[in-house]
Amino acid sequence: MKIAIVYSSKTGNTEELVNILCQLFLLHDKKPDVYKIEDFPLQSLQTYDGIIIGTYTWGDGDIPVEMLPLYEAFEHQDVKRIITGVFGTGDRFYPNFCGAVDEFRDMLFVRTNLAVTLKVELAPQSSDIKNCGKFVELFLTRLRNCDLVMI
């Protein structure tokens, strides 16, 4: 199973969440390829069995501008078989909490095999670790189940 985590982080909160998720994947003997969005080759989407997107939310619930090419790549490539997940950080002060996660979720649900989403307020806290663990477990369960179906 080939897994990638592709993310963007403005304040470091989303990057911190990436690091937590990577540690949790290692507990399951999985080591995802991790890319900052500017380093991810968009043409390689189909080389992965699973892709997890990490994003912060900008403005009034918008996807950050640097993440738009990734969003569009999912819209224009044949990615239905790819298991996906999306997570992000945001501030409940704003009316559309983690709106970028919602935007990606809605598109991924239609275009891919969306397994799981996760929203974290601001920086990850120790109380978020349990939800991060569930995120990783649900993602890996979907990957394993799809492998069984494809055989």
Structure in words:
This protein is α/β, with parallel strands linked by helices and 151 residues long. Helix content is 39%, strand content 22%. Strands 2-1-3-4-5 form a five-stranded parallel sheet, sandwiched between helices. The longest helix has 22 residues, at 129-150. The radius of gyration is 14 Å and the shape is globular.
Treating each run of at least 4 consecutive H or I residues as one helix, how many helices?
A: 4
Percent helix, as a range, is 25-40%
- In the sheet with the most strands, the strands line up as 2-1-3-4-5
Structural class from helices and strands? alpha/beta
Shape: globular
Q: List segments where confidence is low: pLDDT < 50 over at least 5 consecutive residues.
A: none
Beta-strand fraction estimate:
15-25%
For the biggest sheet, the summary is:
5 strands, parallel
First and last CA, distance? 13 Å
Strand tally: 5
Mean pLDDT score: 92
Element-level helix/strand string? EHEEHEHEH
Whole-number radius of gyration? 14 Å
Give a short synopsis of this structure:
With 151 residues, the protein is α/β, with parallel strands linked by helices. The chain has four helices and five strands.
